[in-house]
Amino acid sequence: MALVNLAALFPLLISMMLIAGCVTPPHAHKDLFDFLVVGKTTREDVLLTLGQPSASFEQERIFTYRVGQYGEDGYYIISPKVVSPAQAATWQDVRFSLVIVFDGHGRLQKHQLVRVD
Amino acid sequence: MDTDDSKSISSCGWTETSVGESHWRVRAAVTALLAILGSAALTGCIIIPVDYHAKGSRHNVTMSVTNELRAGTTTREEVILTMGEPDFISEDEQRFGYFWSKVKAILIVASYGSGSAAEIPRSYLIEVSFDQRNRVSKVRATKQWGDAVTGDPEVPESGKDVPRRK
Asked: What predicted TM-score, i.e. pTM, was given to this entire model?
């Protein structure tokens, strides 16, 4: 009897998981970048808050992050993990490229949210 | 009164034929024409010109950007702040590639009971090279039909300038 019930529940569970996967919104925050203060925020602060950048330049003087926007809820960071090089070329779901520039002491010098979509 | 079906029209440059034979030829020609037109209609092929960015392509870079990049003046930092993260970065960071793709036409092939459509993309690449002072030394724009820019040894390809991600 128990086996019959599990078999009946299995497609339902799979369907629920698929539906949940389709509609789960990203963790978006309106104030995601409020911590960025020129002359104050350090490289460490940025890494601890936003995580690994999608790319870095000039010995980590410049970081870039791929940023998505979920309606009015705010911004979210798109994971830099890439399965294949071809996948990196896609900007699907990416709305902005956040560029962060540090000074010689590792403090925020300037930042720019470049719209890419 | 001439009751003969045969009519000489050789004076008009035509060969002399009977009315029955002439009708048969016209009918055959019309039938053949209808068959050809019908086949063309049934295996219809339509090209609709469009102009929109391909799915997954970045939208913020255009060919006109090349006019804003000044050799010897614009820095790598300014390039990134203006155009965002590049799509391709050489290992030594001396070359960036900004790539985008647009759909320029839609090809629709229709036949009786079925049909298909395909996007015809055009790909664009702006390659920016930097000197030792981190300033722009060369800007090169390439465009090519298809969903990739290839065929030029200087153009980044998979395995040469792969997108560098941390």
From this structure: 0.69
User: Which residue of chain B is at minimal alpha-carbon distance from A53?
Assistant: B166
User: Can you give the pLDDT of all 117 residues of chain A as single tens digits?
Assistant: 445 565 666 666 666 655 555 555 567 889 999 999 999 999 999 999 999 999 999 999 999 999 999 887 799 999 876 555 555 558 988 999 999 999 999 999 999 999 998
B75 CB near a chain A CB, below 8 Å? no
Dihedral angle of Cα B20, B22, B27, B28, to the nearest 10 degrees: 110
Whole-angstrom distance, CA of residue A75 vs CA of residue A115: 12
Pairwise CA distance, residues A84 & A96, whole Å: 21
CB B87 within 8 A of CB B57: no
Chain A hits for B55, CB-CB cut-off 8 Å, are 92
Helices (H), A67-113: 85-88
